[in-house]
Each structure stands twice: as C-alpha cells, then as structure tokens.
Amino acid sequence: MNLVARMCAENGPPVMPHLTCVASTEAEIRTLLDDYRALGVNRLMALRGDMPSGAFENAGFTTATQLVSYVRQLWGEDARICVAAYPEVHPRARTPAEDLHAFREKVMAGATDAVTQYFYNADAYLRFRDDAQALGVEIPLVPGIMPISNYVQLSRFSDACGAEIPRWLRKRLEALQDDIPALCDFGADMVAQMCERLIAEGVPALHFYSMNRADLIREICKRLGWC
C-alpha cells in the first residue's frame, strides 16, 4: 500500500495494483479497495492467486470472477479491471473449453482488459484470441512476454505455471545454458521475433514480465527498434 501511495503521489503513469483474493475475507478485500480508491486508483489487476502454504479457503472469495464482480459493484462503471488469461490453458482447468468459459465469465462479471500468461508459441495466443472472440469476448487481450535469461529457472517456472516451452526451444536453450551471454542474446532475438509477429497480428499492446531485469527488456526493445 505504501508503494502504491508513493507512485500515485508522483503523478506518473496510471497505477494498477495487483489484488489476489483466495484465502482473504470480504472485509479484508473491502478495506484494500477502499484504501486504493482513496488514493485515486481506478484500475486493478484482479486475480484469484495461489493458496498460501498452511492457509485454507474461507467464506470469502474463491474465484477471480467473484472478485471482479465485487470490484465492479464497489467501484462502478468507470473502473478498469484487468484479469488473467491462459492461451495454453490454466493448470487447474480440465479442458480448454472449460478454461475459455472461465475467462468469459470474468469478462461477463465486468473485466475490461486481460493480460495473458507468457508463452513462446504465438499460434497459441492467436487461437485463444479467436476462440474468445467467437464467444463474444471483445476486450483487449494483451499478450504476456517473458524474457529468457536462465534455462533451468525458466523450465521449472514454466512447468509449475503451465506455460509450454516448445521442444525445439528447449533443445536450443539446453545447448546454450552454460553460456549465459549467448543464451540471453538468443532469447532476446527469439522473443523479439515473436513480438514482431504478434504486432503484425494486431495485438493491442505487449506486457513484459520484467522480473526485475530491465536490461533484458531493453535488449528486446532494441531489436524491435523501440530504443
């Protein structure tokens, strides 16, 4: 909250706090939302989140859809509510159709924008976008972009969150994993090429997961001619 307050006071870019709801009570969520609103925040990333170790679901919120509906109720129609989307299917979803339906429910509850889980297969994003539009979902769907700097960490993280690393890419990264500069150069080239295709396909924006590595994002942007 202190960081959000400081950023709002600096009058810089619009601030969009991330709010997870699982294992939180309605009173706790209401307090946070009221505090954000008092700071002038009118946009939010609404997420279910992961269950904390040792915690348990209570009578509060259990889905992001419930959180979106609650924020819309409290903040009114002028609020921008962003949600997550999963082009390669959420790990907890039983089928792609179930996952797509869950995404549509968040939109119907009041979501105005979505940012996807990262991916390295542009076709997965484009297919998800087309399938969502076929169901009447027209909100901006911003692709999430993850830079590549450490193969072992990326592999573990991807396996945990359900993001697919294509077989050809795994082979290249495995071959380069002991040469970090070469791996980072290859990763920046590959990710920039994917971004170019996404831009050509008309994506509304790109969301970079910087992981506190602005240098990696800068290298991608250089290859895109942005800096």
Description of the structure:
By secondary structure, this protein is an alpha/beta fold. 49% of the residues lie in helices and 12% in strands. It is built from nine helices and six strands, in the order αβαβαβαβαβαααβα. Strands 1-2-3-4-5-6 form a six-stranded parallel beta sheet, covered by helices on one side. The radius of gyration is 19 Å and the shape is globular. It comes from Cardiobacterium valvarum F0432. Belongs to the methylenetetrahydrofolate reductase family. Keywords: FAD, Flavoprotein, Oxidoreductase. Its cofactor is FAD. One of its GO terms (cellular component) is cytosol.
Task: Give a short synopsis of this structure.
With 227 residues, the protein is an alpha/beta fold. The chain has helices at 2-9, 26-38, 64-75, 96-109, 122-134, 151-161, 167-176, 180-200, 214-223; strands spanning 18-20, 43-47, 80-85, 113-118, 141-145, 207-208. Strands 1-2-3-4-5-6 form a 6-stranded parallel sheet, covered by helices on one side.
Tag the structure with descriptive keywords.
single chain, 227 residues, alpha/beta, 9 helices, 49% helix
